[in-house]
Amino acid sequence: MSNVPVAVVTGSNKGIGFAIVRALCKQFPGDVYLTARDPGRGQEAVAKLQEEGLHALFHQLDIDDLQSIRALRDFLKEKYGGLNVLVNNAGIAFKVHDTTPFAVQAEVTLKTNFFGTRNVCTELLPLVKPYGRVVNVSSMVSSSALGGCSRELQQKFRSNTITEDELVELMTKFVEDTKKSVHEKEGWPNTAYGVSKIGVTVLSRIQARMLNEKRKGDHILLNACCPGWVRTDMAGPKATKSPDEGAETPVYLALLPSDADGPHGQFLSNKTVRTW
Ligand code: NAP
Fold this sequence. Notes:
Blueprint: E1 6-9, H1 15-27, E2 31-36, H2 39-51, E3 57-60, H3 66-80, E4 83-88, H4 102-124, E5 128-137, H5 140-147, H6 151-158, H7 164-179, H8 192-214, E6 221-226, H9 243-246, H10 248-254, E7 267-269, E8 272-274
Parallel strand pairs: 1-2, 1-4, 2-3, 4-5, 5-6, 6-7
Antiparallel strand pairs: 7-8
Helix pairs in contact: 3-4, 4-7, 4-8, 5-8, 7-8
The structure holds NADP nicotinamide-adenine-dinucleotide phosphate.
């Protein structure tokens, strides 16, 4: 088994994830795994970094596929006995003018952004070693979507005692409510992406709390963040930040020094803790 520290970035064949891997290759003292659901796109991205003189390793990972997540888990357990840095970056968004019915957009978006990310956490968090760092890439849109929720939902999503099961129930209810076209009546905002990212931010707060309760002595720091508005296939060419600039906050959180006792369980943008 290798003692080398290891970092994993989900959805990193392009966009912000790719830029996070690029930065980690330069700054992380260990093996950096670029992961992608499509091995061809993943290997191509590794080759692109190679041309820049950077050495990333590749492992397949489709966060929608539990078998794929478990294959990565088993690989990390066997080769490294765990992992040191996990960046949950993979995500999807329908374009604003997409005509796919809203209920389908809700189901598909929540499936990857919330349920897929949660499945990765369920399988990989137990492997995170002491002093490990976990970064869940959410979005400022989670804050604006929270503002668009009913008072009752806002209270639940801001609660310091909400459980993961309760959060899963709420995310499932959103999808069901869109199918019955009652989501607005039930207090939800009209954004599937926004609700999926509320899920990611609240999940991070819950996971950080669980780490405090169950693994206090392990000094693991887990946070959610917004990369900013970044020029990628998702956000388009008019966005204000380059992918490398978008990677800055996630990389800052992934590389928090071993003597740092925070941030933990926070939502950050531009390396600054934001009020949730
Ligand atoms: P992007 O360019 O579209 O890249 C998304 C990445 O996620 C791609 O590598 C994609 O792989 C991967 N992915 C999608 N579904 C996946 C799955 N099921 N399993 C594994 N990988 C999957 O988007 P981006 O702008 O870099 O976004 C990265 C993250 O930042 C997302 O979580 C996004 O919500 C968040 N974010 C972005 C912005 C922004 O302005 N760009 C702002 C706030 C938050 P394929 O190539 O195979 O599709």
